[in-house]
Structures are given as structure tokens and as C-alpha cells.
Amino acid sequence: MARAESEQLLLASAAGDVAAFRALYDRHGGRLYGVALRITRQAALAADAVQEAFLQIWQNAGRFDPERGGAESWMLAMVRYRALDIVRRAPRDTKSLDGDEGLRDEVEAIPDPAALLNQNADSRALMRCLGTLPADRRQLIIAAFVDGYSHSELADRLKTPLGTIKSWIRRSLDGLRLCLEG
């Protein structure tokens, strides 16, 4: 779907057009559910995140500014934040993927976030800049900002001091910013 079409649907939703909002959900709901599922690792929590995010999208569609970014990115941020909020409120249950073959298949069928990012020019620029980072820093950024791990969780998983994790992420983000501005 073209970026402009998504923006038009979002702007129409801001004006109260229920049909436009339904079309927006139909076109993006599945992909956004996949992102939420990747973060929450539980189907029920992912569905809750998407529902809460779309409620927030409907209520705040008037705040969307096409000059600041695309509609897809704006909605993705809403879903990501809702999913992260849900994960932080509930203890992370990593066993749910091990015990439920159906859910494991569902998670594995979700496109890799890197593949989703390659869909527009801004995303391609971000992917190019991510490629300039060392592999371990790139994985750290993806774990923090796509998979939703907190700095503390990453420090525990990597058995690395929290301050070091924070420094690596900050420096990596600075590098990405410079690359994107250049």
C-alpha cells in the first residue's frame, strides 16, 4: 500500500471517518499484530496490544503529522509502545513459546522486522545505517527497540554491566543519527 494512501486514511480517521479507520485496520492490523506478537511472545497479549494501540490511534489520529513521518511508522510506534507496556506490566513468560507449537509457528511466520523495514525509502536508509554498526551493536539495538528488551534485561542476558549496555546503545544510536543525517 502506498504511503500516501495510509496517510489519507489516517487523516480521514482523524475527521471521524469510521470506514477509513476500518480500512486502515484491515490493511495494517495483521502486520502490526505480528510486531506485537514478536515483542510479547504471547498471542493474547499481542491482541491486547493491537486493540489498545488502535484505540489510541483512533483517539489521537488528529495528532498525526505527515511532515514528521509516515502513517505506518506512527502506527507502528503506537503498537510497539503498547506491547512494551503490556510486557512490562506482566512478567515475561518465555516458556509460552516452548510449550505451544501453534504459537511458535505463528511467531516464526512473522516477517523479520528487517524485512518490514525495507518497504520504503526511510526504512531502507535506516537499514543501510544499521548495516554500518558492528553486528553485536546492531543486534543490541534490535533487541532493545524491536524486541522490547529493557537495558536491564539485556545486561542480564549478555552478562554485561548495565552502564556498558547503556553506553553501547547510546553510542550506536548516535552513530545511526549521524548516518541518517549524512
Your description of this structure?
This protein is an all-alpha fold. The chain is built from eleven helices and no strands. Helix 1 (3-14) packs across helix 2 (18-40), helix 2 (18-40) runs antiparallel to helix 3 (43-60) and helix 3 crosses helix 4. The protein is globular, with a radius of gyration of 17 Å. The two termini are 28 Å apart.
Describe how the helices and strands are arranged.
Elements (H helix, E strand, L loop, with lengths): L2 H12 L3 H23 L2 H18 L10 H19 L5 H5 L1 H9 L3 H5 L3 H10 L4 H11 L5 H8 L3 H20 L1
Helix pairs in contact: 1-2, 2-3, 2-4, 3-4, 8-11, 9-11, 10-11
Properties at a glance:
single chain; 182 residues; mainly alpha; 11 helices; 77% helix; 0% strand
Radius of gyration: 17 Å
Low-confidence stretches: 93-100
Structural class: mainly alpha
The total strand number stands at: 0
Order of helices and strands: HHHHHHHHHHH
How would a textbook summarize the main sheet?
A: none
- Number of helical segments with 4 or more residues: 11
DSSP helix fraction? over 70%
- What is the CA-CA span between the terminal residues? 28 Å
The backbone outline, from C-alpha atoms, is globular
Strand content: under 5%
Average of the residue pLDDT scores: 81
